[in-house]
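hey can u check if this looks right to u? its 226 residues, i copy pasted from the old doc so theres a chance i mangled smth
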Amino acid sequence: MSSATERGPRVLRGETPLTPELIVDAAERLTAEHGLAGWTIRKLATELDCWPTVIYHHVGDRAAVHQAVADRVVSRMPCPEEELDWREWFTELLLGARPVLRAYPGVARWLVLRGPIVPSALRILDRGVRVLQRAGFGAEAPMIYSSLLNAGMLLIMSYDERDAESASTKTTITEALGAYRDDERTGLAAMAEYLLTPGGTEPFYAYAVQRAVDGAQTRLAELHPE
């Protein structure tokens, strides 16, 4: 990589001119490695071997690049066919979203804080709310959609933030409570036994998704009593 004093128009150095797509490609790589909040425009410029002003010109400030990365990542999440039963639709969406978002730490947090404002998320939102309307949720469809998506996004966000803790300060819940496996307090012992069962966070995430869907099903039954 050249030094800052050697930077100049890439075409004069015989390199491919930068485009918005190439800039977002680099930002996506940095996000996968360091998390969405783990890089600056200056770091991105170093990655691209360009001046920060080039990034501002082609894409915008850091917030704009974050939004472009989020849109790119969310576009890889599943958007199930609208003809599916609503329970299958949200199960497929939320289970499929986990590995995509976990590969790019911080994007789930970005979605929780800013909402579905990127085109790829709007596409999923529109279809998901229509699926719920067709299922009979009526005017509550947007709230049901939000509660189901938040159930998944907040969990993924918590996993990302736990992983980001430094090794010196990280204390997992398994380490904190695992010692109570044989405790006479049966509640603590049961939790310790559960936490020490191999499998990591994925089984719990799937469990939480299913329970959120079950809760929405209960509400649907209340809206349409027999």
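The domain at 76-223 is CATH 1.10.357.10 (Tetracycline Repressor; domain 2).
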